[in-house]
Write a structure and sequence with these properties.
Layout: H1 2-8, H2 27-43, H3 60-63, E1 70-71, H4 74-83, E2 91-92, H5 108-141
Parallel strand pairs: 1-2
Length: about 140
């Protein structure tokens, strides 16, 4: 969601890449969730900015292509530390993903609502990130 949303802003010099800490391991289980996420992105008009296929697995090589690393939450950061060596301290948000504590339910209506809530939180965090980096760049340039 963050990758698609940030890329939809079409900011000059910015490209987002997302990777999952267990994308490969949980691919079969997560494919139905991935389809629902793509539907949500479509409702928000940012589907075209999502990657064409399923999520990419976090690897050291992918991480080393980045200037800034953001982890969705502490769990993702902890899992990431088991897979890669962060080259600089990542930004760790506090967004609970669907199926994590606070966003767990067997009811499809709840899962749809939780996915929307997660999207809204991610969009707000991306907005703050862009504003913070833009402000820092303006201070550096002056």
């Amino acid at each position: 969601m963050a990758e698609a949303y940030l890329n939809s802003l079409q900011l000059d010099g910015w490209t987002a890449l997302s990777s999952g800490t267990a994308a490969t391991v949980h691919k079969e289980i997560n494919l139905p969730n991935h389809a629902l996420t793509l539907e949500l992105l479509g409702r928000h008009g940012v589907r075209e900015f999502a990657k064409a296929g399923y999520a990419d697995q976090l690897t050291q090589a992918r991480l080393e292509k980045t200037d800034i690393t953001v982890c969705l939450n502490q769990r993702v950061y902890d899992e990431g530390r088991q897979i890669v060596t962060f080259t600089s301290p990542p930004i760790v948000w506090s967004v609970a993903d669907v199926g994590e504590p606070g966003r767990m339910s067997a009811a499809e209506s709840d899962r749809l609502r939780y996915r929307e809530e997660a999207y809204q939180e991610i969009a707000a965090n991306v907005g703050r990130l862009v504003a913070d980096i833009s402000a820092a760049n303006r201070r550096t340039a002056s």
